[in-house]
Write a structure and sequence with these properties.
about 120 residues; mainly beta
């Protein structure tokens, strides 16, 4: 079992930055792929970014490439999402998720564990 707790959301003006953190406990963190998803009201939960368990390889949704950076610290058991040049369309609840197996990294169904979510609101 893995417990995930996000922090760092809030209200920011367009063009600003936020950094989200996800603290993991309960299982060897280094054996988990760590993903970030977001869900706006009335919309599906969408993939944002992933950092892999072994190589630390990163993947991003096209909509955030060049603006968001995902990272991990396998000593502190944390994953982070640095979000720069934020836009109003980035407004959503952001979730971190852990995948202990395989599957399509961009699909929420591949992930076994989820955090509670943190609200990010970008004003224009």
């Amino acid at each position: 079992q893995v417990q995930l707790v996000e922090s760092g959301g809030g209200l920011v003006q367009a063009g600003g930055s936020l950094r989200l953190s996800c603290a993991a406990s309960g299982r060897a963190f280094s054996n988990l792929d760590m993903g970030w998803f977001r869900q706006a009201p009335g919309k599906e939960r969408d993939f944002v970014a992933l950092i892999s368990r072994s190589s630390g390889r990163t993947y991003y949704a096209d909509s955030v490439k060049g603006r968001f950076t995902v990272s991990r610290d396998n000593v502190k058991n944390t994953a982070s999402l640095q979000m720069n040049s934020l836009k109003p369309e980035d407004t959503a609840v952001y979730y971190c998720a852990a995948n202990s197996g395989g599957g399509y990294y961009y699909s929420p169904r591949a992930y076994d564990y989820w955090g509670q979510g943190t609200q990010v609101t970008v004003s224009s």
